[in-house]
Design goal:
This protein is α/β, with parallel strands linked by helices. The protein has helices spanning 2-13, 16-50, 73-86, 106-119, 136-146, 166-174, 203-209, 222-232, 247-259, 273-290, 292-314, and strands at 63-69, 93-100, 125-131, 151-154, 160-161, 183-187, 200-202, 236-245. The chain has a 5-stranded mixed sheet with strand order 3-2-1-4-7, sandwiched between helices.
């Protein structure tokens, strides 16, 4: 009753959405500062004490993290460190970065990633792919063509893995789909089970469609494209007990709420970077809905693989 009364007052004052956003952002901030560090320690101790995964198994999947990046060389190096610390078997992990040839920080990237490669020798591969500047969708595909992993994992340089041994968990989850057709994702708290933030697909999926992301989007909805195709064939698989966070987005979102400059609640300065991002967001979303029939065709290709595997098992 009290909560409803407070909500009604905030609605009448016209600040309900603003206050709601502040509280949601503060929750994410507290999770980043308190819960997630504790979660990592807990998961690490659990693996160490159980000692159930001391040696690599024959069915262990190789994993490729595909990360387009621009202007954030230290974040890219931090991602390598984070991955190395949180996986049980670094020797089956491949991390590929796409760097624009005109990136002013290109040399910093090459230096930092070169040092990371020497420091973390157990990683299967850590490479920078330098090429012409292109949209992020095409960048992910350029990395997918170069990768060698059996699992393709969408990545950003602001991404932090929380739970130790997430690679072991992926092995367990992929065994549930012997035909290799699935879209998996971890819990990022913000969208959680409602959409695939940083999806994982198999090489079977990638080769069936001929691409990782559809090439046509400037920046947004690439993950939603994968999620939507999997939804059409009933192959969505959310892993709620494995966590990923976006620390910079969390802090930035909280700061924007406090300063009342979040684009949802205050007018954008025309011509600003935020204004351009909003326009890009709507362009990508309009295109996403305009070409829905293409996703239906892609779903049919994957469904054919599922049906073929089922028929072979019946023989």
């Amino acid at each position: 009753m009290i909560i409803n009364n407070i909500r009604d007052i905030l609605i009448r004052l016209g600040i309900y959405e603003y206050v709601h956003h502040i509280l949601a952002s503060a929750r994410l901030l507290l999770l980043s500062l308190i819960f997630y560090p504790c979660r990592f320690v807990y998961s690490y101790l659990a693996f160490t004490l159980q000692k159930k995964h001391d040696s690599a198994g024959a069915d262990m999947k190789t994993i490729s993290l595909l990360c387009p990046t621009r202007g954030h060389p230290t974040d890219a190096a931090r991602l390598v460190l984070n991955v190395h610390r949180t996986v049980r078997f670094p020797e089956r992990i491949e991390i590929l970065f796409y760097i624009d040839s005109d990136d002013p920080f290109k040399n910093d990237y090459l230096a930092l990633l070169g040092a990371a490669k020497k420091r973390f020798r157990r990683l299967m591969r850590c490479e920078a792919i330098v090429g012409e500047r292109m949209n992020i969708s095409k960048s992910w595909n350029a990395l997918a063509r170069e990768c060698k992993g059996e699992l393709l994992f969408m990545a950003n340089d602001d991404k932090v893995y929380v739970d130790y041994g997430w690679d072991i968990q992926l092995d367990k989850e992929t065994k549930k789909f012997p035909d290799g057709i699935f879209c998996m994702w971890f819990n990022d708290i913000r969208v959680a089970e409602f959409s695939a933030c940083f999806p994982v697909v198999s090489r079977v999926w990638y080769e069936a469609l001929g691409y990782f992301t559809p090439d046509v989007f400037e920046f947004y909805v690439n993950d939603t494209w994968i999620w939507d195709i999997a939804k059409r064939i009933g192959r969505l698989h959310y892993i709620p007990y494995m966590h990923i966070i976006h620390p910079y987005m969390t802090f930035y979102s909280f700061a924007k709420s406090l300063l009342k400059i979040h684009r949802q609640y205050s007018p954008l300065r025309k011509g600003s970077d935020a204004d351009q991002q909003t326009k890009m967001y709507w362009r990508d979303n309009l295109l996403f809905h305009a070409i829905h029939s293409r996703r239906e065709e892609e779903a049919k290709k994957l469904k054919a693989i599922i049906d073929s595997r089922k028929s072979n098992l019946k023989k």
